[in-house]
Amino acid sequence: MDIMSVPKDIGAELTITSYIQNNQNTDSGSLFLKVTVEDPSTNLNVAEKETGIGYIKSKSQTHYSVSLSVPEPGEYLIEVELLENGNVLSSNGEFITVKAGKDAKEPADILLTDMNLVIKQYVDGVSKVVVDVSPGIYNQGGDSGPLTMEVRAMVDPYSVYTKSDEMGMIQGSGRVRGNVQFILPKNSEYSFSINIEENGKTVVSGNVDEKIRLNEIMFNTPMTYRIVEEGKAPVPTPADAETPGFHGSTAILCLLLVFSTIVMSRNKN
User: Fold this and answer.
1) Rounded to an integer, what distance in angstroms lies between the CA atom of residue 254 and that of residue 238?
2) What is the distance between the alpha carbons of residues 56 and 40, in angstroms, rounded to a whole number?
3) Dist CA 235 CA 166 (whole Å)
4) Mind listing the pLDDT tens digit for each residue in 182-237?
5) Which of 196, 156, 205 has the alpha carbon at shortest distance from 176?
6) CA–CA distance from 157 to each of 129, 132, 153, 190, 196 (Å)?
7) Residue 98 vs residues 35, 66, 265: alpha-carbon distances, Å
8) DSSP state, 108?
9) By the 8 A CB rule, do 226 and 212 touch?
10) Domains and CATH numbers, the chain
11) 257 in helix, strand or coil?
12) pLDDT of residue 177 exceeding 90
């Protein structure tokens, strides 16, 4: 789980985005997301919200955001549960530290969040596709210098497609998406990687945590993929209990992408 907060006059507002994927051949039942914020010093919940999200069609994915407020700076435990008919299908949790503020002169701290991909057009008959790729980044530090995003789509070491986007400066606490467009053979499997440079120096790199087969994606249907930054282990998929429509360790993937703002820093442990 990667961890977003927006400062308020009192405390901060946390936004937790959960990415949910149904890999089974049947639609799910009615699903709920339950998000809890706990103060580990007292073991008391300081915020909680349960939201109905409907059902997820078979072989599809979606994402939902839940916002909660915390009263003051400090350490908190964020827990998310995905429920179907009262049964917990998947859960995830992480400790975060909410800081009182930041130095306006501190350097930029660029994070990769996720990558959106959309097939926009078929070309050369139907053998190739025009693909829009939009990786998201978040600056949890001070204002950045000029940023350049490079996106690579690789079939193998000999078949690599590279595009770049000049993104300019990003203010502290700013969130933006780069955008590049590829023309790619449709029937290949691709590994996507992203590299961000500031003033010509790499500040963060990451890889999409799964290979993507373009011929399995519907036309003009946005898909969202998680990016794992280099040097960080991917979040393991929980071993979910067998439930109709969701069984096996890959049935439900409920990932928290926690986006830090000026009052949020990651707990490195």
Assistant:
1) 9
2) 33
3) 30
4) 999 999 999 999 999 999 999 999 999 899 999 999 999 889 898 998 865 554 44
5) 196
6) 21, 22, 10, 11, 21
7) 17, 17, 6
8) P
9) no
10) 5-266 (2.60.40.10)
11) strand
12) yes
